[in-house]
Amino acid sequence: MLAGELRLGGAQVLVLERRAQPSQESRASTLHARTMEIFDERGLLPRFGAPPRRDQGHFGGIPLDLGTVPSHLAGQWTVPQTQVERVLAEWARELGADVRRAHEVEALGGTEGLGAAEGLGAAADGVTVRVTGPDGPRRIRADWVVGADGEDSTVRRLAGIDMSGTPATRELLRADVTGIDIPDRRFERRPHGLAIAGRLPSGATRLMVCQRGAAVARTTPPTFAEICAAWATVTGEDVSSGTPIWINVFTDASLLACRYRQGRVLLAGDAAHRQMPSGGQAINLGLQDAVNLGWKLAAEATGRAPDGLLDTYHLERQAAGREVLDNIAAQSALLLGADTDPLRVLVTGLIQQPAVRDLLAGTISGVGIRYAGGAHPLVGTRLGHVPLGTDLAAGGTSSTALLRKGWGVLIDLSADPARRARLDDLVRSRTARVRLVSCPPPPAGSPLDGVGALLLRPDGHVAWVSAGADDPTPALRRWFG
Ligand SMILES: Cc1cc2nc3c(=O)[nH]c(=O)nc-3n(C[C@H](O)[C@H](O)[C@H](O)COP(=O)(O)OP(=O)(O)OC[C@H]3O[C@@H](n4cnc5c(N)ncnc54)[C@H](O)[C@@H]3O)c2cc1C
Question: What would the mean pLDDT of 50-78 be, rounded to a whole number?
Fold first, then answer.
């Protein structure tokens, strides 16, 4: 995702990936509304076919209606991570990213040399990367490096970026098993722990089990015998006659990188945050990091960025990460805690209240996020899909369609030719990747009712709003230079 975004922003991109082949592991399978909106904004949705969608999600195992969030792609979409990775890899390559598999990053340093994190400070004018590929080790000089290399991030370690938060206290064992026939269990809390079982389309059964009080200090992967023992303790069922086709474990560790940027090194995705994948938020959070970072880093790398733009990545996405990690921690407590039955009853009642439902569903779906920055209630929010009538130059359009190129958009809704001419002069006088679009005033009931003009960032968040004829120059300078 980040490689594609950087290419849209005009940067040269080299992706170094340790794996020789894409992973076939069964990992994330849920995309939420905001991620689907982003894919739509980049014209990627058709590449996903028609994935299954449902309204019902959950919060800590308590049913939560996600179908009511204000999005044209509301709900929970089932898309295997393997498909997400394939689609995004194709897209990034088409846009000109150089993706090299079987290349492992082993050392980082400033331009002076490798292995010294201090050489990566703000004063460095580049980063040296040692990578070993099929032809042996070599050094690469980059202006910027982004560690999007997962929760055990090598880049994070080499850059000396610490994580803070709470270590693991519980673990959830997972296995896909063939040859067993057991009842489905949806978030079943039992005296000895939590059990989840469901039949997959392939015919295998996915088991997840958290045995209360089990130790979490693990140095080796779990065995099938361990999973069978935990399953038997929690449910009383014997699944040992089955054949495991995949075994995994994750914990409730909740850790956030103390800095998302260290000089010319940045972190995105699981490299920046470690969390339990409750509510299927982990992959969504990472994809949204990438879309926040791409246009900013591309502007920086190509010399267009205003001062401070790149630092807004840390400010905005660390805050977003903290919010998600907090809600995941609350869900873990509700789902896995021993004494939480009264709390679950309370939350089950509260979730029926539209205001509570909307708040939680907005958070899980990612559409509720608002970056700090302005007094107008729309500033900092993502605009989402708003039909905009007829663009004077290009025919009928929408906020989604306007973001396809990954440029900023100044949207003039004044229907005033003189205002349009002034805004046109402003935009034309800049080298920034911003274009002007004029559309008729939005009808009553539109989210843009009463708005005279607005500035949309390439990531779909609102940077500036005017009800009248205010001058957008300060906002254009702040976000686009
Ligand atoms: C068992 C399991 C189940 C999950 N279920 C869900 C779920 O249901 N919902 C959800 O939202 N999330 C889920 N997740 C989490 C989700 O898979 C991650 O959040 C997501 O993969 C993070 O993407 P990423 O690109 O940040 O990191 P990763 O997907 O980990 O990608 C990092 C990449 O970097 C490469 N790499 C690492 N080190 C180096 C190096 N030194 N040099 C070169 N390349 C390197 C790796 O090979 C890897 O391809 C699950 C994860 C696991 C493990």
Answer: 96
